[in-house]
Amino acid sequence: MRVLLAVPPGIDKMEIYKVLGLKAPPLGLAWIAAVLERAGHEVKIIDSPTEGIDLGTFINEVKAWSPDIVGLTALTPTIYKAYDTVKAIKEYDKDLPIMMGGPHVSFMYEEALNNGVDVVVRGEGEYTTLDLINTIEKIGMSKDALKEVNGIVFSSGGEVIRTRDRPPIRNLDELPFPARHLLPMDKYTIFGKPIRIIHVMASRGCPYGCSFCSTSYYWGRLIRYRSAKNVVDEIEEAVNKYNTNTVVFTDDEFTLGKRFVYDFLRELRERKLDINFSCGSRVDTIDRRMMSDLLNHGCTALYFGVESASQDTINRIGKRITIEQAIKVFEWVHELKVNAVASFVIGFPWETIDDMKRTAKFAAKLNPSYAQFTVATPYPGTPLYYQAVNENLIEDWNWEHYTTLRAVMRGYRFTRQQADKMLQYAYRVFYLRAGFLAKELLSGKLSMVITAIKNSIVPWFIDRLMKRNE
Question: What is the pTM for the complete model shown?
Fold first, then answer.
């Protein structure tokens, strides 16, 4: 079958894309495409925001390629653009099947079906999509046949049919490498800079289940690692093909599997593979030795979710770390001179204005290379969402605003407007410190910091990611 997979058009005009200047490859679609190609299907990927394709041009591409089925992916803030695309496709050909996947529709599947989507692919998409495509190729959109495809949702006679859950893929090594040859690899940018970066996912799942994060509920609570050899095989192939040595790991918790980490570093060492890479970590899964070993093997940046200055808040969101662990890890960061980012979330329902101020000041005390502040956002499928719904805290139901850059819910003792002001306060407290500004002035990056404060991001973090010897 001819399968068109796409990131919907129009996303590049949205707030979150304009602020970040980000064009990142849709790794999930590329992985699904690789599985479909291996099974003999013909696949095309349209990365609309990266290619600058508007809705009219997208529909012309659909007409020209004439697929047998279209698959779309979307996040919560991009879901309306996805629904607009569905409507336009159906106006062109009402009988062309449309499937959709991603975190938002995995939980809000009835909403998706009500907006013209024929089949929702829930959760991990590779084998579910393959099973679905094979079924449609053999039998068509038979409702009885679709009921035998695990991991999907569709409607039949006004009834919503949710099939059995598909078990997670236990051996991720059996998956082919993502089909990067179907992506415009030379067009991806960060902060508007054309760069060449290889995005790699070494594991899936997270055992922690933080209340505000959808990872555990989308990928599952069981963390599954690929073998280090398989990961480095992919990296070696990609960096040689695309002439870059910069790798970004998209895993939430790269350092959770210590055996994997040291096997990975050994593979790099034995192959003499000289790469720069960044990865996510936790303050309770890394020690000084691992941090040093990562640094010595090309790690240019570490990302830590600290989240709050309040141990009570950390406990209530299910983070399972301690303030003391965070302080100790950032002592190592400064001793080893590691570029590190710490993320913080303000605006949990039970917090006070003073709690949020303390978190901003705690970030300044830890003094990471970069601090990211976001507003607690009740994404569908998370415990925070269900709490916010049950307690009637959500005041803004416009999914496009669910970017973590603006408040969409009130707290028990603060308004949405106050949460927004606290986000601005946090960035000012951290980035307008005299010592911080002097350091950036001396390094010639002050103008970038000004842009960072304006946009609530720090471009020089990525710049340093790519220049580890600077």
Answer: 0.92
